[in-house]
UniProtKB/TrEMBL annotation:
Matching Pfam families: CooT (PF10133)
InterPro entries, per the entry: CooT (IPR019300)
Organism domain of life: Archaea
Organism: Candidatus Methanobinarius endosymbioticus
Protein name, per record: RNA-binding protein
Length: 59
């Protein structure tokens, strides 16, 4: 599968099994495999595609 886990810069899990990420400026909305949504404000600092991990520095 192609799901990813999203963490903040402290290593805390923000959301797991994310299928879709929508970015509008600093507003980042994540949608998981159950279609649950979570929105945070910040920017991506690292994308570890092989590990299915995305890192966000939150505002």
């Amino acid at each position: 599968m192609c799901e990813s886990n999203i963490y903040n810069s402290n290593g805390d899990l923000l959301m797991e099994d994310v299928m879709t990420v929508n970015i509008n400026g600093e507003k980042i909305t994540m949608i998981d495999i159950l279609n649950e949504k979570k929105t945070v404000y910040g920017k991506f600092t690292q994308l570890k595609l092989e590990d299915h991990e995305l890192i966000i520095e939150e505002n």
